[in-house]
Specification:
By secondary structure, the protein is mainly α. The protein contains eight helices and three strands. The chain folds into two domains: about 70 residues, Helix Hairpins, CATH 1.10.287; about 100 residues, minor pseudopilin epsh fold (3-Layer(bab) Sandwich). Bound molecules: manganese (III) ion.
């Protein structure tokens, strides 16, 4: 068994002008594809790990064989993060009116306070990484960020929990359209969030 690149559930230009078609094409077809192929290469020499789920692999980075620990962390994380990311974008933005909306108000005071916290997390993540909205171990919504391709499902994460929304803040995610203006990209992201998908993740948190 090997991992494969999921198809995008929409056209490359579906999120114009907020996320441009060229960025989507390279991001999915080159960057994400690269993580999948490097993850598969890393696992080639470890047949005992090939039947594990991606969540199992990235949830036990510390227990992986030393020769593939870093490759699985970076490329397994990259595969999980991008597969998740494609699912939570491609929507119409706005504000969730359901249980997620209630949970955001309860955790942050208001939707706008959540939005400010999320944008701040993405804008202040130095270098490459991700900003997340997670359900933490206490069952509460929390905003955090991770470096590189780490995520809150990893045993090595500083803040752990189940992501229900996330944004890629690597330059490859926005540079063609926004250059150095990461905060503009973070704001534009709010126009393409698929809140229905976020709600599904929220309902399925174990
Ligand atoms: Mn990326």
């Amino acid at each position: 068994m090997s991992f494969s690149l999921p198809d995008l559930p929409y056209a490359h230009n579906a999120m114009e002008p907020h996320i441009d078609a060229k960025t989507m094409e390279i991001h999915h077809g080159k960057h994400h594809a690269g993580y999948v192929s490097k993850l598969n290469s890393a696992l080639e020499s470890h047949s005992d790990l090939q039947n594990k789920s991606l969540e199992d692999l990235i949830g036990q980075i510390n227990s992986l064989p030393a020769d593939i620990k870093t490759a699985v962390r970076n490329n397994g994380g990259g595969h999980w993060n991008h597969s998740f990311f494609w699912n939570v974008i491609g929507g119409k933005g706005g504000q969730p009116e359901d249980a997620v909306g209630d949970a955001l108000k309860s955790a942050f005071g208001s939707f706008d306070d959540f939005k400010a916290a999320f944008i701040k997390a993405g804008a202040t993540r130095f270098g490459s990484g991700w900003a997340w909205l997670i359900v933490n171990k206490a069952g509460k919504l929390e905003v955090c960020s991770t470096p590189n391709q780490d995520n809150p499902l990893m045993d090595v994460a500083e803040v752990k929990g189940q992501p229900i929304l996330g944004i890629d803040v690597w330059e490859h995610a926005y540079y063609l359209n926004y250059q150095n203006r990461r905060p503009d990209y973070l704001n534009a992201f709010f126009n393409v969030i698929n809140w229905d998908a976020v709600s599904e993740y929220f309902k399925n948190v174990k």
